[in-house]
Amino acid sequence: MNANHLSAASAVGLLLITLPASPSLAQCRQFGGAKQDFKVECRKLAYDWPDGGPPILWSRDLGEGYTAVLADNDMLYATYRKAGRDHLAALKAKNGETTWDFEFDAPAHPKHVIEFNAGPRATPTLDDGRLYFINCGAVFHCVDASSGKVIWRHDLWTEFKDATFLNHGYSASPFVYKDTVIAVVGGRGHSVVAFDAKSGDIRWQKHDFDASYATPKLIDLDGRPQLLCFMAKELIAIDPANGNLLWEFKHGNGYGQNISMPVWGDDHILFISSIEQGGTRALKLTLKGDKTEVEELWHNRRVRIHHQNAIRIGNHVYASTGDPNIWQAIDIRTGEVCWRERGFAKSNAIYADGQFIVIDEEGYLGLATACPEFFEIREKVPLLGSHAWTVPTLAGTTLYVRDNEKLVAVDLSAKS
After folding, report:
1. Whose CA is closest to 261, among 123, 386, 401?
2. Confidence class of residue 114 from pLDDT cuts 50, 70 and 90?
3. What was the pLDDT predicted at 205?
């Protein structure tokens, strides 16, 4: 280990001391993990890799799509598309073998942008033995996780009049709240819809906002749950129990593409970002009685996150931003950019054991150390094909990464 590695290791140690405990994502049942923050509590990962990269445990053919892999005990759940049919499959975590594979006809919509294929974009959600899956064409299935049998089904763009059509395909993961599962639909009177988790019956449907691509995110504001829905022109917060609007804040761009999930902190500061003139904002939320006050702390138009994720560590947010792409560290309190560093193409990441595990769109897998003072890429190896736009999944010390052809399991454990 060279001197730079030693300094990086020291910085990592400091970060680990100050970080609050994050729930284990050995079981990853929804997009972003248990707290939707892309952090994994793990203390036994390798800090350096052998020549040629970390050991590959197995690799298997998959298919088109950008959804993250779910991990639950000894099972994985993955979606993909082949020959005009969409698939939701249960795989054995130890070797990737298929246990069951639910498939259905899914013709591409004639108005879809097909340059990036019509594979699934919205990561499924697993809860109470049921998988909730919405494909690129907004067909919503509830499937039994043990058998792959369909429990109920809705076609969101057909059943809900004037639902928001998304030319890059439906992308927001369904969100389970108590005994309901909530989907962003868009359109008059049904911008957000809650379904009974078991029967699929509509519990409530409300609001008149156009939908966009971001997955809903649950936050807790002084004991009051609020579900954040990043719509086409605004961020809204609703009561997840009944759908009532709690507040809204305008944040739009020329394309109606708000994609990256908001980032929330214990200091009640909310970080939101999108492309073009939308830029990045920090909002301070304050609960006063039954009302939520929303104060804009800063707006930085130079920081623009497209379909990548952002991760907050302490008082800073780290993300792959812009085009051409660079990694940045942003002070959540002021909007100041502490550094800008190249080295990865457009990329997604998770944070575990004091380090960032990165997969970029060119298929490179990497390890990086980041703190407010510097960004260091310690390892970087070619692993996948192009358009590797899926956030990695870490279960224990096994990393699951995919592109539009294959799924790969990688051993990231530290060796004695």
Report:
1. 123
2. confident
3. 98
